[in-house]
């Protein structure tokens, strides 16, 4: 496998042309070999409709490439110019409260608007035509951060019309829809598809089937929007197409988008995310304020490796304080290096820092770059250069011993039918993922359409509310250790409780008779320690009981090869259960303290210390000795 | 008095017709004798305008009645079908933020819309015509849960127009309105009724008189809507008319609606209510998470007994977890029985469980029934059957020793002029009610238009901001112990401070010179223990002082026969004051620990244990011995 | 200097004419000599358009003046009558969510609406014509509490149109605007001014330059609205023009409004403000619940003395509980006197109580007056009379030893780019102001356009994000002790980071290389004790280091004559730093416990006790002995 590359996001249109060459030289000097450009530059590429100005971009590519940088060129469709509004006055999204989301920042378009989609295809095609065969352009980025700022959700007239068409296609007849949605329930029957609105602003909640279909429709529109651009580019280029996803966005099916692209990437902002996207308590947020959550990035690295079918990048890596979180501290010295190594440990082909030079103007002027606004080096630059110097050929990433299923359809379902305040699919999956990390295990994220689970010795699939058909078949044929539940198969594809009751696990005589949700201060203790929290199921059937609640009810049923978890275990319970299964599956586990983390890349083991204090390695990570300083990274051959 | 009946809510339109007979048989087998049907079925009764389909309903009634069940038939006006919108596009309510509340769930109508009201009368009349003289239909339910989902409040054009008419009727001339509202205050004078809008979206708060009149108008529209249907039915039937109210809804005058109906009923969801409608602290919410608040249901039982002028039901009784609260745990085993007994102890003629079989589709599929979706018995079924077996002839409910006045007008007033964050009328009344329950006292709720208080040995009337004229006269003639205040008579009917200052209590020389509200951490200690919290008044006059604040100011003035409370006492102070008055009135009190409760029905005493642990009865409840297990119910003859 | 005057706000239109003379007599009897009237009376002065009714006002002035009261006459433009809406249907403000703010309370106009502005000028001119030369009218109040209820902010069509004109004037060409705002950033370039909207409802935040210009525009509209009325009055009168500002409103530049008026005044509600406008913790809020914050009023007294260029009043002084805060307790006995003395200590020419008699109707009927609604004296009356009896000729206020710069432009900047939840300009300035009060120092607020700082021995200028040009020059020439930072000069006037990096302090070789914001639980300790909280800067340059962070980074750099603070110090750090600088500047400091405060007026020292317990003065305040009771005030000659 080739050495991972480092790169940087650059905005030639923000700077005098006279600066470009020197910037390029300094990028190379720091060991960077990639530069992403162009993704917000539409108003400079086409200042008025049809007036195309590629000259500056030609010169920027020329200058950057000449210095030895590979160009990643973005389509600028996340930032339609102001004149676009005159051509498509109804292209703006409408929020759930019915307010039109106006021009003046970015992502101001509704994915379902066909006129705007055509414009996006047009500009992508023009860029493809001009640069698609240019060898200096080594990859393409389509649009930017789908879903950021809640932009998948839209209740615009365009979305309403699209939804009606989508429903007509899906159901054929209105009677089929009425039946599927259970519209008899509150006399909600429709006489025609034209009568159906998006499910917002109803008096109390709309039917969950209605809401689920709306989410699916919105997700499909993202896929279609992306695919349209991908096809426009593909006509002109063989370079890989990429999108840069975000952290903890579950408003569309990233796997489906990913199918139309060669590489997945994401934008990794550990400190910003810790403040507003990580489920944890305040004391832990304080503890990792300058390091970020030790598992949140790792999870997304694994997720996007799956979305990219093995090929993935970090397209934007936080290099210093950001500007958009409730608080924006500076990283602990060394963390930029650590974050980069964490990505590489997970198999990133490239890590690009965002951004080269801090902008002294507009919305993100408080967002650090590798350079300060006065072009002096910011602290991140030296750390990037340090990583660049450390990198060499690395082993192939390979397959991890553990597979963890992640399914956007499940996220939709949990959000639509939360049933308990804390009940969130992402949170549940992260609880399991953290447990695996505490155990020192490397993990692959498994898409729900996976037909063959044999690569993994152990597979976990928590919270799959709707059974992915392929996965259920794969599980039936699977010989490894499979741990599923809670809530598996709780709903049919139409969001109904299955006639025979869930979970309908192949080979397990088991029914979830009823469920309850729990206040955070009302956990249900388990007989072997720990407890269920938030979510609990009462199961029946002949499947053997592996663990019980303290009140005697089954908590874990089945076998070490195929077990169902009848609740949401707390950390103590998860640690025990996961270790037991891993042991039975022949997977060795560690007991890592909070902050110390391990990731294997082939036979190489990378150890990272997210803690603010040194961490002893002896007896903790086999084959490693001494202590790792705060923000320290160590690597060596995997032992054991 | 006949034995109370048990029943269940059933939706024949949700199930294959082939299931009906077996369902009916099982209902009877469980000891149920009532079945409520039809209240959400409009789209199946009239799929398109004028196309009436009574056939299935005929057959459902036939099947259910044949099994021995009495039918309670609902008018389906809480769920107008989608085609209604085409006929009356402006029938939807508009929320305080100006957003139209759309179709897609239920209760999507504005009470003030005359076109929709006519439709409601039409369908009620059609149902009355067909089933009004049918002896199998033993009672009628009109609409469903007025006010649920904040649906009394509407700022629609229909409401605005209705409000103007209402004002013109009330005031006659605009000058009278300007004077009554004090519009001179901020140059808010109107030249005609047409200029007046609902009081939403004003820059700062609108005049309290304006807001109070709007609340009265909205309440009157509920009354008128209900009355119109009642009249349409009454033309065809002699069966009792019922509405099923909700818990802690004070947006309309339930007594006024109740005057047009024979029986009051309410929908009792103890666990859901504990999470989102009970004022208590988190530790207590945890303690009773599986039992519900020990006093909240009891209060509503007493309230609706008053609304029904003695005749009342629980129309929907929670039988297991619900789906709509922040957390939805399962009840402690035995609680379904206990809740049913609590209702019966308070004189319920019938208790119907909601619902028969858990629906596997639509909005409430996570709401338990007596059956699971797969038709197996859910835990509630056995408990219902247990109560059915226990029931026999019971004594008449009779009059309680204590009367507690509850007045929706007071609730309007406190909400409009809160003055302190915690100052809420319902909360104040519940504080008093809980005190009475801790003292083991059975309570009657006294409507504000009560002209004769002599049935009760003690009457409490906290927080009556506007003096109900009849009650003031009744109090003047009352010979029992009357405890009133705080805030009594603080406003005239036009929401002005009376010229002579409140409270204008007959026979008490007393004036509230001024008031203040208190932070929760700034209580005002009383000399005899406990404190005033939230609300405090400074009074003057020659009335004797019974208790003083620690700072010497009068806290309780008057006599043991007629006293005024110049503040909001905390629990310790309430316990002492209520006991003193009860003692003086010759009423024996108990000292019940939290969770243990007593209710008398004639000479019968029912004891319930809401606690999660056993409760000793010896020395606590005279005549009862031993311990009562968690969720336990005991009954016997009242002693002492 | 003449003896300060006491006065009261009175609404003759609220009361029968027969009461006026007796009211006037009692005002005089209490020692009051001023009466403010008329500011909400438009609907009674002009019930229908053009139908002017000055008769009652003539008689009110006659009656009040005859009793010996000077009249302060208000223009009634804060309360346009209902008919105004018919003439100018689009005059209403629109909030940030796009909702029109309706008629029914007060301040229901958009400052940018030209039609309404003309009406305001018309009524002001008519009043001026009639009463401008009347010697009984001793002063004029224009409008009432600009900005109260968030009324500066408006996104109405009138505001949008005005904003476009304002931008065109400011930038000349759209290219200049695009460049200044950095619109290249996200392709936000405009082709014409007509394309620009107010910066609300954008998908994510609009450009800070866009937002800053909108704030400036809105502020300018307030200035223009006020100036138009001032000019209309000035044509007819030589009496001083006044506006009554509010507490902690930073939505417009009060200094700019003040330039068009002779006297500044403000409305001082210490208990209401403590509950909802003071940054402090709950325990302190409890401690001062009946006294108000010991420093909040003092700060505004100093601020408005600056806004009035030395001449200022309290136009409305809280006399008892108010009606609008989350809780509304009564003041501790003596506090009305103390508050009045605090104002006089700061040089108030007049203190008027709001209001004479508590209104028994409309929105503020729970707001205390000097009289109760039944005309009996409320507690405040005696305290007002006590102050009146105590007052005599007092020394000139004079210049304070310390100047503290306050700049509304800085408040705009911090709000637009908060970067950390707690980062608020007003809060930072108050932290510094409190420190000065704890040190017993009297303070002058220094406007940002001050060209000469020599009157003060020490000047502090925290948080001046944009350098006021005059002040920077003044500082360059200043010989006293100047303490600036953090965030000084962080932005250019166009809201960009300056090329050379901030702070560009004359004579200090210093650059802020980068900044970070801190969680409240992540302070950065300083080597000498205390810590930076919320905001921290990393500085570089050759300026000497006076203090360091515990991690060695410079915290305070420069000299005792000119120093820059590289963070937001906590109280402990502020106490030390301010004392060091004061000492170096030859200013003696005290160490006052929380609650005890000192203010000098010329050679006179006024000591106040805000605490709920007595405070010893010996050894605490030189020259004062014994103890001061709660709410006590003492005065004497300043010693030391």
Fold topology:
The structure is a homotrimer.
Chain A: E1 5-9, H1 17-29, E2 34-37, H2 42-45, H3 55-66, E3 70-74, H4 82-87, H5 114-131, E4 137-141, H6 157-171, H7 174-181, H8 208-234, E5 241-245, H9 254-258, E6 263-268, H10 270-276, H11 282-287, H12 296-307, E7 312-317, H13 335-345, E8 350-353, H14 379-390, E9 402-405, H15 408-416, H16 425-438, E10 443-446, E11 458-461, H17 469-477, E12 481-484, E13 511-517, E14 524-525, E15 531-540, E16 545-548, E17 554-558, E18 562-565, E19 567-569, H18 571-584, E20 596-601, E21 604-609, E22 615-616, E23 627-628, E24 633-637
Parallel strand pairs in A: 1-2, 1-8, 2-3, 3-4, 4-5, 5-6, 6-7, 7-8, 9-10, 9-11, 11-12, 12-18
Antiparallel strand pairs in A: 13-15, 14-15, 15-19, 16-17, 17-18, 20-21, 21-24, 22-23
Helix pairs in contact in A: 1-3, 5-8, 6-8, 8-15, 13-14, 16-18
Structural summary, described in words:
Three copies of one chain form a homotrimer. In chain A, 32% of the residues lie in helices and 18% in strands. The mean pLDDT of chain A is 97. In chain A, the strands form five sheets. Chain A has an eight-stranded parallel barrel, surrounded by four helices. A seven-stranded mixed β-sheet of chain A has the order 10-9-11-12-18-17-16. In chain A, strands 13, 14, 15 and 19 form a four-stranded antiparallel β-sheet that branches. Chain A has 640 residues and is of the alpha/beta class. Chain A contains 18 helices and 24 strands. The radius of gyration of chain A is 25 Å and the shape is globular. In chain A, helix 8 runs antiparallel to helix 15 (408-416). Chains in contact: A-B, A-C, B-C.
